[in-house]
Amino acid sequence: MTAHSEKTSLLHQLNEPFYLSDEAIAFYRENGYVKLKNVLSAEVLSYYGEIITDWVFKLNKLTKPMEERTTYERAFLQIMNMWRENEEVKEFVFSKRLARIATELMGVSGVRLYHDQALYKEPTGGITPWHADQFYWPLSNPNTITVWIPLQDTPMEMGPLAFAEKSQTVEIGRDVEISDESEALLAETLKQFSMNDTPFELGEVSYHAGWTYHRAGANKSGKARKVMTMIYMDKDIKVIEPTNEYRVADWQTWLDSKPVGSTADGKLNPILY
Questions:
Q1: Fewest 10 Å CB contacts: which of 75, 119, 143, 177?
Q2: Could you give the 3-state DSSP secondary structure of residue 215?
Q3: Closest by Cα among 51, 63, 56 to 92
Q4: Sheet containing 128-131: order of strands
């Protein structure tokens, strides 16, 4: 296969529909997350994973030794909106296959990009404490969803993502940022929920709702746990008054400071499906 035809094949895989069963949709809506096997091929993950990794290390500014970092900093290297840096990263982030799954799981008419983010947990990287993402987002309804894409097999020792099932409906802890405090408070609160804490095979991805509580273990392997994520939102979602400093920052950074009450359609929020 020529390089051109190989690239055409990869792009086709990123954009062709994935068969999503009624059972998977029902599971997501009940539990606030779903794990799906064989969504992306080894070839797609290898090709785009290499490019994403290059850009993570090119853009990373966190160089402190692990012992000098906060709990949040120990959890992962976090690089956002890489789609603006490189055309091939943009191809991956704008995948219609992945955006369509998000649309179907939420039952909306289409989705916009909120932002992408690479989350690389280095060897010896610490836990990612319990949290719900939408704490950080000034958005008007719960139709938000994140796809979590490991770029390698992710066994338990690497710290795969874990979910508190059905926790998207609990109001407790919605005003808590990611921290040691959130881990302590929520670990206690979330005992009432079953936890799904299982490895990810290569090609397996998860989708979780903005208010679903999740965490990840430490990376005890000798290799980085490389993950790419995209956050999608209902294409008609509105901007709400930011209620904490993080939401103010997100409103300015990702939502173009769009007026409160208007559709969240800033220049960084294209419709992907």
A1: 177
A2: strand
A3: 51
A4: 128-131, 214-216, 161-164, 195-196
Q: Give the angle 198-114-156 at the CA atoms, nearest 5°.
A: 15
Does domain 3-253 fall under CATH 2.40.50.320? My reply is no
The phi and psi torsions of 100 (rounded to 5 degrees) equal: -65, -40
Would you give per-residue pLDDT tens digits along the chain (273 residues)?
687 888 999 999 999 999 999 999 999 999 999 999 999 999 999 999 999 999 998 998 767 676 777 766 666 688 999 999 999 999 999 999 999 999 999 999 999 999 999 999 988 888 988 989 999 999 999 999 999 999 999 999 999 999 999 999 988 777 878 778 878 888 888 999 999 999 999 999 999 999 999 999 999 999 999 999 999 999 999 999 999 999 999 999 999 999 999 999 999 999 999
Q: 269 is written with which tokens?
A: 């929020």
Q: Beta strands of 21-172 (E only): which ranges?
A: 33-36, 77-80, 111-121, 128-131, 144-150, 161-164
Q: Where are the domains of the chain?
A: 3-253
* Tokens coding 159: 């710290």
Query: In terms of DSSP bridges, do strands 161-164 and 195-196 run parallel, antiparallel, or are they unpaired?
Result: antiparallel
Residue with tokens 């051109």: 4
Tokens of 49: 């994973």
Closest by CA position to 262, among listed 236, 238, 242: 238
Element holding 225 (H helix, E strand)? strand 225-234
Instruction: Confirm if 97 and 41 have CB atoms less than 8 A apart.
Output: no
Distance, in Å, from the CA atom of 171 to the CA atom of 253, rounded to the nearest integer, reads 26
CA distance 229 to 247: 19
